[in-house]
Specification:
Number of domains: 1
CATH superfamily: Luciferase-like domain
CATH architecture: Alpha-Beta Barrel
Strand content: 15-25%
Number of strands: 14
Strand order of the largest sheet: 1-2-3-4-7-8-9-14
Radius of gyration: 20 Å
Length: 364
Amino acid sequence: MPVEFIGYIGANHSSEIHPPKGPVLDTDYVEKIAKAHDAGGFDRALVAFGSTSPESILIVQHAASVTEKLGFMIAHRPGFTAPTIAARQLATLDHFSKGRVAVHIITGGSDDEMKKDGDHLTKAERYARTSEYLDIVRQEWSSDKPFDYEGDYYNVVQAFGAVKPLQKPQIPIYFGGSSDQAIPVAGKHADIFALWGETQAQVRETIARVRAAAAKHGRQVQFSLSLRPVIADTEEAAWKRADDIVARTIELRKAAGLQTEGHAPPNVGAQRLLQAAAEGHRVDKRLWTGVAAVTGASGNSTGLVGTPEQVAEGLLDYYDLGVSTFLIRGFDPLEDAVAYGRDLIPLVRKLVAERDARPVAAAG
């Protein structure tokens, strides 16, 4: 099974160890990091969405214009744009980018953040709305005639998208969310279900839950895992770098008046990462939870630590569980993207190809 790599394009140069400098939207940086991913052999790059951040679709529109092969994973929050309009926006961009668009559906785990954009629904209501939203988006992409749709949150009459996605059958839909409300919606709609970097036992459990939910709709789902690899020439140097990243993260959070312990995040995904962190800073072979522990697992915050060969072996352990996509981004975003493209991605592709070829060779 081919393996896919997704990177990350931020609106400016920042991370847990790099406080933002310069403009909130640094167009030069966006161009530079997009080109680095394009040259580094990444299949896609994620552009995130937040209640105060620059708009993800527009960032991707520009990044696509300065790259040649790189695909994009557009984080998108249902409920703030009409689904009929969002479907046409994405389909239009799919044409301009020559079929390089995917959408990552983020329903939202924090009530406080959702209220910043005027959304006061409960989590259960948001996921119910997301399901209706994706019903309509998919029909806009596929229906050859106007359609009606009446739900609890949307009521459209004679809706029709004249522009269809360039990709066939449709634009890929990634989906995030680990709560009991999220899994049934993922089973119905997700093409690729995105997990954060959990332990192997947690990943095995979630994959089973999502597969069972998808089977109820006669569907199959692929799986993506998000990690922050820390690589170096030696294992000792890699762990030293990981320790330095934790120390720098703590330093910057304290300077900003942010807590570094005692976190109680509202979303289930972060809670699961903190459960892994409670087992120690190093879990399984080399899953590293140091930054997750001090940040409250606010987003993609766990990683694999070691030499490129060791990290590649760690990724293959997840591949054996059914993960075929890896979203990898570094704490030094631009430099790490270059290093991943040079030292990690080609190695993992080679190892996966060798592993996939073994049964064929044995059968012959």
